Amino acid sequence: MSSPVLIALDWGTTSLRAYLLGDDGVGLDARASSAGVMKLPAGGFDQAFEETCGAWLDAHPRLPVVAAGMVGSAQGWVEAPYVETSAGAEALVAGIVTVKTARGVAVHVVPGVLERGALPNVMRGEETQIFGALASEPSLGASGGALIGLPGTHAKWAFVGNGRIERFYTFMTGETFGALRDHTILGRTMHPSATHDEAAFLRGVDTARDAGHAGLLATIFSTRTLSLTGQLTAEQQPDYLSGLLIGHELRGLNEVLVRERSALAGKKTLRLIGNDALCDRYRAALARFGCHDAPTAHATERGLYRIAAQAGLVAAPVRAA
Amino acid sequence: MSSPVLIALDWGTTSLRAYLLGDDGVGLDARASSAGVMKLPAGGFDQAFEETCGAWLDAHPRLPVVAAGMVGSAQGWVEAPYVETSAGAEALVAGIVTVKTARGVAVHVVPGVLERGALPNVMRGEETQIFGALASEPSLGASGGALIGLPGTHAKWAFVGNGRIERFYTFMTGETFGALRDHTILGRTMHPSATHDEAAFLRGVDTARDAGHAGLLATIFSTRTLSLTGQLTAEQQPDYLSGLLIGHELRGLNEVLVRERSALAGKKTLRLIGNDALCDRYRAALARFGCHDAPTAHATERGLYRIAAQAGLVAAPVRAA
To answer: Model-level pTM?
Structure first.
């Protein structure tokens, strides 16, 4: 078994995931904690870090530590100012800010990425996952360009080319779904269901794809009216609304591609990063747009390892030929 | 002064508005109450009706009573089943259902309108306002067709032609705005403002119009990122988000028109019905889409009077030549 060479932290708003990594980024141990950035009391970072990683450092006191995510925001442990697009891994490395823990260890915090413009965009944490996906599949970062999706509360879609994050979009799909379900009339007739209703979900996706030209605000009321007209049960309504919203996200993404003489249909260089259940939903929805080739890349640890290697904290991974 | 000939009720989810009308629908008295359909206890309709209209009926015991809105829904006083599109005033009259009050008065409840299809739509109350607008301006209902907008929690846009409601859309703009402001990250950096910031509102409208092709889910995050990049103050954010959502509504409506070889730009037969402040916002937003001709028609009482006249409850209004 490989010995540990790096502690890698994915420290977001609602949770902290810590990985003990060996050579080439192989995972040796992992711990998850609910100590997200927005849940910590003032000065709580050090204590959360000790609780999660203290035992690893007791055993291996000189391990380097790298961290990505909201931990580097203005509300985080230390602010690592945004790097602007287009952003390569070398810019992220140059933007690393360190914070010294009570134990005397330097935590290397990776900056997020900012895109300026009429619709500015920011990410923190996803940039590291994207470089993890590129580390697994270097051909993705080649000149032709790839599209990397990170479903979630605030879904990101990044256009990657020449090894850089060129630009990206933020779709507030997950959070809008929660707000509509829990705080509008649409939730009143819904019943939660323990099982995923694939047919209801795909009906929502297809409705957004085929009848969504008037926009999301004009389609979501159908969640209620299909129920009023006996076409959707209370248990089907949450999955239908989820399909509608993800369908509108993909419709919008496709519109961006169409304006560049591309399309989701038949796209071969699209990858998904995220939890399995959500990526499964997105894969099923992408198939309705003719995109059948969207493998999920588990990229978090790999991205943290790659950044650490590029920063000289660990040896560069050995590339398979 | 004209003597009263009709009591007309606009009885919705959150409020009850009652009008005492004279010949030709002229308003003699009005009362508003918070006794909306969703706020009443079981059996509360009779008491709310007495409290609001009892004094009028004491003075004029034989006045007919007509009502429109959610009072005719399955959760209302008596259910007046939906009439299907395309729907003329005669279909609404034929669908009237009466309920006898404790005092022995018959309340004539106007049905709502249902449109079937992949995106079914329903309205209750708006149909009566639309016929009120047509009563004020009969040329609107001519064969060329008109577009009537009713901004609100669930905004409606109805295509009217040949004196009938041919089809309509429901945009959940108002309710989605409230859910996003009060229950997502977007609200966290907002400060409420006592005054309307027209520039921030129009910036939102223009952003939806010019950069909204990826859809609402992809633009709303800019409320936060424009603040992060120092381009929008906390006080401007609510009006910016409001402009974005209304802009997306109009963008979607325009897309519907474009598919029919029409457009909002230059449209002469568009009317707005609703409260003044909200209609002012919509008029300003419509102007950014090139539609400068959207007078507001105050149509509620007129619509109730017209339906009552067509039902033979009152004399038909005298038409101006």
So the answer is: 0.93
